[in-house]
Amino acid sequence: MGSHEHSRNHSGPEPLAARVQRMTGLNPACCYQCGKCSAGCPMAAETTLRPHDVMRLVARDRLDKLADADGLWLCLTCETCTSRCPNGCDPARTMDALREIFATGKDGKPPKAISAFHKSFLAQVRAHGRLFEMGLIMSYKLGGGPMFADVTTTPSVLARGKLGLAPHNVKGLDEVRRIFDACAAVAAEEEGR
Amino acid sequence: MTELRELARRLLSEGTVNAVLGWEEGPRGARPAFVTTPDGADRLIFDHRCVHNLASYLSPRRPHLKRLGKVAMVLKPCDARAVAGLIRETQVPRENVVLIGVRCGGVVTDPDSDATLSEATVADRCRGCPDREGKLADHTVGTAGPGFPGPSHRAQKIEELAAKPADQRWAFWQAELEKCVRCHACRQVCPMCFCDRCLADKTQPRWIESSPHARGNMAWHVARAMHLAGRCVDCGECERVCPQGIPLGLITRKIASVVAERYDFRPSDDPAVPAPVGTYRMDDPQEFIL
Amino acid sequence: MDSTTPATAGGFEPRITAFVCNWCTYTGADLAGTSRLQMASNVRIIRLPCTGRIDPMFITKAFERGADGIIVSGCHPADCHYNAGNYHARRRFAIFRELMDFLGVDPSRITFSWVSASEGAKWRDVVNDAVTRVRALGPFTAYRNMVVVQATAPKSSSPEHAGEGEGLPMQSLAADGVAPGASKEVTA
Amino acid sequence: MTKIGYFPGCSLHGLSREYEESLKAIVAGLDTELVEVDDWSCCGASSAHGTSHLLAVTLPARNLAIAESQGLPEVLAPCAACYARLASARHEIEGDTDLAGHVNRILVRDFKNTVKVRSILEVLKGQVATIKAKATNPLKDLKVACYYGCLLVRPVEVTGGYDDPEDPSSMEDICKAAGAVPVKWNRRLDCCGGGMSMSRTGSVVRLSAAILKDAKAAGADAVVVACPMCHSNLDFRQKAMQQRGAWEGDMPVLFLTQVVGLSMGIDPKTLGMGRHFVSTNSVMARTAGTGSGAGTGTNKATAVAGEVG
Amino acid sequence: MARIGVFVCHCGENIGRTVDCHAVAEGCKDVPGVVHSVDYKYMCSDPGQQMVKKAIEEKGLTGVVVAACSPHMHEKTFRRAAAGAGLNAFLCEMANVREHCSWIHEDREKATVKAIDITRTIIEKVKHNVPLSTIRIPVTRRALVIGGGIAGIQAALDIADGGREVILVEKGPSIGGHMSQLSETFPTLDCSQCILTPRMVEVYQHPRIKLYAYSEVESVEGYIGNFKVTVRRKARSVDEEKCNGCGACTQVCPNKKIPSEFDCGLGKRTAIYVPFPQAVPNLPTVDRNKCLLFMNRAKGRPDTCKKCAEACEKGAIDFDQQDRLITEDVGAIVVATGYQLYTIGKDQPKDNLKGYGEYGYGTIPDVIDGLQFERLASASGPTSGKILRPSDGKVPKRIVFLQCIGSRDPQKGMEYCSKICCMYVAKHTMLYHHKVHDGVATVFYMDIRAAGKGYEEFSRRAIEEEGAQYIRGRVSRMWREGDVIKILGFDTLEGEPIEMDADMVVLATAMRPQPGIDVLAQKLSVSYDQHGFINEAHPKLRPVETNTAGIYVAGACQAPRDIPDAVAMASATASKVLGLFANEMLEREPTVARVDEGTCAGCFHCERVCAYGAVEHKDIKDRAGNVVRVIAYVNPGVCQGCGTCEATCPSKSVELQGFTDEQIWSEIQALGV
Known about the structure:
Order of helices and strands of chain D: EHHEHHEHHEHHEHHEHEHHEHHH
Structural class of chain C: alpha/beta
Strand content of chain C: 5-15%
Shape of chain D: globular
Order of helices and strands of chain C: HEHEHEHEHHH
CATH topology of the largest domain in chain C: Rossmann fold
Oligomer: heteropentamer
Radius of gyration of chain D: 19 Å
Number of helices of chain D: 16
């Protein structure tokens, strides 16, 4: 218990629960730890942090424990947890908020593969306005994704005419980039907290 | 018009009713009329000058009408709301009155004027009025003009006033209330003011000072507004008959909008719809309460 | 804010009449006493059985008789000793408050609150806050002096307006056709 | 002819183009015209969702705003992921005036959030009678396992409750109208692994294999989906499942639109039946000979599948 | 002219320290009408009270104002003193200068000014006080008990044993309620039927209890002490006088496949039936929806079958019997309508109740609820007490109990805790283990709430001695695979997901009030909460009274209750009823509203705002007897004195005694500048 108390994050002026509540509009204290969310979670067998763990750790201000790479980022956003929660908590939305907190990089890091995938994906969208799948595969591999995992299948994908070889750029690219920049600015502001 | 007259004649000759209450041509425009004989039915008219809310004649304060027994009344859609109010508040037994609904596309502000109905002359309450006929009526006759789309001038004035600082509103109403001579015409003409003994006439205790100065006038108009909250049918009669030209419609309409916004209530011509004051919801908004 | 000279406003102590229900707020005020919670002495309580008994006329009469502010307080929703009196009062005063506001009475002169029998501290806060607020607004002479026909606007803070009335706004409205007829220019 | 806005999304122009091909092939028969959202951009998918809430709302909002300016009252998003993102964005903006203001400031548009977002199930559910009437080649003996996944019917706040989130029936109703026989099975609402196909293939293999096994145990000839991501996990990843020993055999995975298209007797090639990784020949064989012209269609499909296989 | 006496109390130092009491007394002397004004150390002391009495007698006071503590403290004291001196008690009022003044202010000068204000305000009020007298209402000393479950039975027996007549109305064909369905009861495991049946018989045989089974309350009028109740005696199609309860009719009825309500659908009954062998009254009832004869009648076909009538030696079967309406006068009513269980199906009575799709919406045959398990475990049940699952009659070797189904679940069910489930689930695991020795009982729970005498010991025994497996966590989903039920749960203590096979699942579903409780509550004008539970008048101090005087509440229609709670409440209502019946007349405070018949316009705004239904319509007739006006009349027996009517009355034609407009107006005037 001593170490537990010691490791609690007292440095920030705003407790995690309050911060999450501000971001989600939901009160993490609503969770009564019945575990129904985790019972239905498809990743419960793999992740180190099940939805009810996440709710508990948020309520107990344990950002340190939430940073586990095999935790939040394994969430598939299937929302089974939220849809079955008897008490109207929204673990899915809570985890969204936590990932957003961590995405700033200050408090913890998502696993490399997953973060590389998201980064590559969003980079494609920022560059073209739409996803350029070929570009995503290339950039993901270069950006730190498992190098050979999908190389064997890519040719067969091409053979089925599924992958376009050239990106399509939307006309409103300026607007798309403005969206990205504005959201980045908000994220930077959040990081400052 | 023929339809109306024939119906009135039939009701009178068959003895269904002893009188028909409607409008006739007067020396200075349209005026309310009591027709008691079948032949008299030909006097009846209905057009855009038939401004008056005849429902106030049904009020039990008018015993001479009560003596006539069962009567028929020519009914504009807006008057239907007043009749519904009187039925709702047990002042008029529904079975005692035959309602001849007339389809209506709006009336003018002044019944004495010979102006035609136009955007310039139409009564403010008709702007945006969605009702072309009253659902309460037993018979419905005539044809209706297309009506006038909003917006209501009073609503605009209310917004204008509300946007001003409180002291300017105060000054505005002081100037208006000072003019009131407490003739109580607003009370007499109002179909929903039917008490035998008005609060304003009660002396022990005297809540409303009787001399016509702004303070007593304030109390009177506050009381009137509160008593009509959720009951006012917006017939505009109080403002029309005010000899001093006080814009009473601004107050009643303002309260009507408050009731509409807070309690989602609009005056209805269905007597079964309860008025919003006298009922409540447990989750009524209470943002003003600490 | 009222049309009083700054000199009188300095030492001004508002008179506040409170209409409270017997079961919750009156008892809550009793509890404040039993707990020796100190508060401003400007409030005079009139005890009613229920907020449902409180008529808007009480408030206009109190203003006429010189009250600068009003408190109306009763049981919280669902706590009414008489089941529903407070719900009826809530509708009545929601409308009344908007009416007074529309007529130019600053709504912050009238405080509405739910204070339960256990909320002695809340009663103290309601009292102190109301006194502070009404003190800042100044005396409500505008209301009680209405009997003397006056052209002075109640809340002109700028001295040049005092005594000459709010001619401008009235005229501008009159010009719009809402308020025909000129206002009487009689000074108090 | 009813007109409805259409948001294809990146997948329907990429990995799952057969979904768009089959959709476009059937709407004509359903007396519906798709009006594509002008210059649409990516909804942000799970990557925006996993990175920034604001981004996850604003990217879809751009598309909804464009649809609004085109005067479209509703937009069909056939991709379940796009549907979830668009519908969630709409829902969140509706309930949060601050967020609405924020989004409008970023977009520099006067966006009123009037556009309703419809899923493919919602749209086809309303056409069940027409589908039944047009089913010249009903898929009589085809046993299908209707797979909903996570995003199509929940949460109810977002979907508006067009189907029961725990016991949905719209896909079964549509398949029945097409003459197929939906099987009763248990994992139709389980998650297939979603967007982790590339980043965490092992998880996808585990989850998707469990789904396929359950479908097989229930006697299904094919799994029907309405989501490109589910399709890619259940179809494309079957090879990986086999390699890792999680799954044996081949389970054809069809888009719902293909099922409807087949029942209408549309040429399987037009429906993109040949683009799947797991051969759909068994499906074609089952449906053969039940309607006019089906025989030739089947042959063609076999040929197409043969070419690429 | 008023002659008011003012008595200012120092309350020792309590008032005197901050308020100059003498100055207050002096400051009131010049108020017109005040003829006597004094201050004294302790007004409430005997000498203080003597001062008041003496002044009343010597100075001929017409009103008394005691400036002292809160009226909640000593109003009764001083009113009694005034009455002792011959002054009407209601001419005495208190000015609160302690709690509302001396205790909350420090500035002596300001506090004294305020104390004078307060006292003058009350002086002005008292000038308008009028003598009032306590209202006396006659009491009909008979009680109505609605609901024949254990709560209703207990209430009826206690009242009847106390010497008063009772009408007991039960909706179903027999009394006994849910308790008669239970096998054994926690925490003693005594047989439910064995302890209940004697009480049921006692009800039947009690000379002062009139039992109306298969009857419902049609309407209720009146008020405390004077209710008029109309009871609908539904047609049983059996003549009660003739029937001797031999049961021959039920033997011959050809329609034997009707799911038995008593066995929760697990057993079958006939169309003419006695719900269970110990039923009271032991009379058969024809279920007209299921009887062939009535089904034919509904289709316009001629009467057929009549086998029961042929079998009846007494000629007691009466197919033409009609519902009868019976009116009873009673002085008090006990509501004891009990509960129903939440069902997990798709069709729910309210929008906020959704059912549980993740548990199959009630379509999985071997998923049953707690009452069904009671019937399985009951020796008189459909399986004669063997635990057999409904689908194939096999003994389930793996049984899983899920707690909090529909309880503590604001999303799909009720937010409240149903209170009894923890205990009956523990009991079920024991009954199961006693009957299936090699079986495993697993319980998914959130918390074990075992607060009651012997309860914690009982639930620990289930775990420690009887081997129940308790897993802390809820179940996400449940489906049928072959003949097993797959359960997807989570053990929050182990931190592991659990996928488990079960042969049978028992859901501890939430307790809800009976359907139709809202309609009954409206008939009775008692309030109920958003779930339909009847509201008690005060959650702590008036737990068995309702907001309507003379109507009391017992058992699970007020909140989830177990048997001891329900019985305790029932006895409490009986003591309330007997207390009310102790006198022939009922005394009431005279703070009630009165209508000015001369000015009432008959708009009935007062009626709309009255929470008690105290406003009645009164006909005003002319000499010839014609009704000329209809006006409001406030029934003083029903009025509780809130005064909402008076504030609402546009013409101020209704006045609340003790708080009249004139009194309040005078108070406001007194505060004037």
